[in-house]
UniProtKB/TrEMBL annotation:
One of its GO terms (molecular function) is metal ion binding. This is Zinc metalloproteinase/disintegrin. One of its GO terms (biological process) is proteolysis. Residues 226-422 form the Peptidase M12B domain. It comes from Elysia marginata. Keywords: Hydrolase, Metal-binding, Metalloprotease, Protease, Signal, Zinc.
């Protein structure tokens, strides 16, 4: 049912599921189906072709969107508003044959729309910057929508491709993995809940910062919002993975990461759950078409710690509040690693995720949570049931017991970075 609070536009995505072709993509079942996007006027029930003009119309108001898979009997209704983690100050880089190059992208933050499902658990984000590119994510299934070619304002959005992916993954309890005992002990000193430990953490923090080059920071104008500046990196394995799905340019990869982090930002931006307004900005995307020299020897190592350590060390001069490395195609049961409470510390503000599918939201939420100071749910009791994303079920739920950890972290780190603008504010877009 269409909400009366939504705008007059309902985007109906009807999929020709009879044309589905199933194949296995990196241990994940993915079906590709063709579809089309239409405009539905709820009052009259009539359809119209979807154009950029419809997307731009009354963009500040919520819009009702439907993802419909008719032959499977699935209809996903969502409410989207104009929202983007990508900003006019965001930057994109690509690494190729020993050279890191910054590439100006004409990626307008205003052509992104994001929101949640009207019923059930899930998030969605779409870009209409250059054709259509979007993600709809539920804990069980994700839907990747692509029609990537530039559109004139009145041009019909033609047939799109929708990949339907089962995001079921088997995750191991990282704390029970013997090879991670050392890193878990090291994590302990960056996440502390009593005053004595808090003071010890401050000493360690200051010691870590003594040898850091001076960083010019500008106080954010908005003193209310707590803002996390994010940098994401795709290693060669993940870049090859993106290319195999048609995301073979920096612009397409950047749009994909912006949509992905829009869904992450929605979960962490729910003030009713988090306790404060927490804004995420994707300030940097870096894609490695070839790996940097320091990373080549570990690229295919099954131990993610072997990936994380050199990545953290060699990106420590980044001014991002958090840096996340994406990898793919390596073995082992661990899906990700992160330093607990390491956000804002150049040596520890980093994580790695290994996605078996293109956009398994639970993995990113879990590892970013660790860097914000969250432990696994058994260590943060009392937690309400069912579990949230720091537990061991497939969910995007921000559980009530996370709030205390988040408050402790931002009080400790806000003066260092979460209320500071650290990333270079050079406008490159358009």
């Amino acid at each position: 049912m269409v909400s009366t609070r939504a705008s007059e536009l309902l985007l109906l995505l009807s999929l020709a599921c009879s044309q589905a072709v199933g194949h296995v993509l990196r241990d994940t079942e993915m079906r590709q189906v063709s579809g089309r996007m239409l405009v539905l006027k709820p009052l009259s029930g009539t359809h119209d072709r979807l154009t950029r003009r419809h997307v731009d119309l009354d963009a500040e108001s919520p819009q009702a969107v439907r993802l419909e898979l008719g032959s499977e009997g699935i209809s996903l209704d969502m409410t989207l508003t104009r929202r983007s983690v990508w900003t006019n100050e965001s930057r994109a880089f690509e690494y190729q044959d020993g050279e890191l190059v910054e590439v100006p992208l004409n990626l307008d933050p205003n052509c992104f729309m994001a929101g949640g499902l009207d019923s059930g658990e899930g998030s969605a984000s779409f870009s209409f910057c250059d054709g259509v590119s979007g993600i709809v994510q539920t804990p069980e299934v994700e839907y990747l929508v692509e029609q990537t070619r530039e559109l004139d304002s009145d041009e019909d959005i033609s047939e799109v491709t929708v990949s339907v992916v089962d995001t079921s993954v088997e995750e191991r309890d990282l704390e029970d993995d013997e090879e991670l005992v050392a890193i878990e002990e090291e994590e302990r000193i960056y996440f502390n809940i009593d005053r004595d430990s808090y003071n010890s953490s401050e000493i360690l923090w200051k010691r870590d910062m003594q040898d850091e080059p001076a960083i010019q920071r500008t106080t954010r104008q908005n003193k209310v919002d707590i803002t996390g500046e994010i940098a994401v990196y795709a290693d060669k394995n993940y870049a090859d993975f993106l290319k195999s799905t048609g995301r073979n340019t920096l612009a397409k990869a950047t749009t994909f990461f912006a949509n992905k982090w829009n869904t992450i930002a929605r979960v962490y931006g729910d003030k009713s759950k988090v306790g404060v307004k927490f804004v995420l900005q994707l300030k940097q995307v870096e894609v490695w078409w070839t790996n940097p020299r320091y990373y080549r020897s570990v690229q295919n190592n099954n131990n993610l710690q072997k990936h994380l350590n050199p990545f953290c060390s060699n990106t420590r001069n980044s001014k991002a509040d958090h840096r996340m490395l994406y990898t793919a195609g390596v073995g082992g049961g661990v899906m990700g690693l992160a330093w607990i409470g390491g956000i804002c510390n150049p040596n520890r503000a980093c994580s790695i995720v290994k996605n078996k599918s293109l956009s398994n939201l639970k993995v990113e939420l879990h590892e970013f949570g660790h860097n914000l100071g969250f432990r696994h749910e058994p260590q943060m009791q009392p937690c309400s049931k069912p579990d949230g994303f720091m537990g061991w079920t497939r969910t995007h739920k921000f559980n009530d017991c996370y709030k205390r950890s988040f408050v402790q972290t931002y009080r400790l780190r806000s003066r260092d970075c979460l209320r500071q603008t650290n990333m270079k504010t050079r406008v490159l877009n358009g």
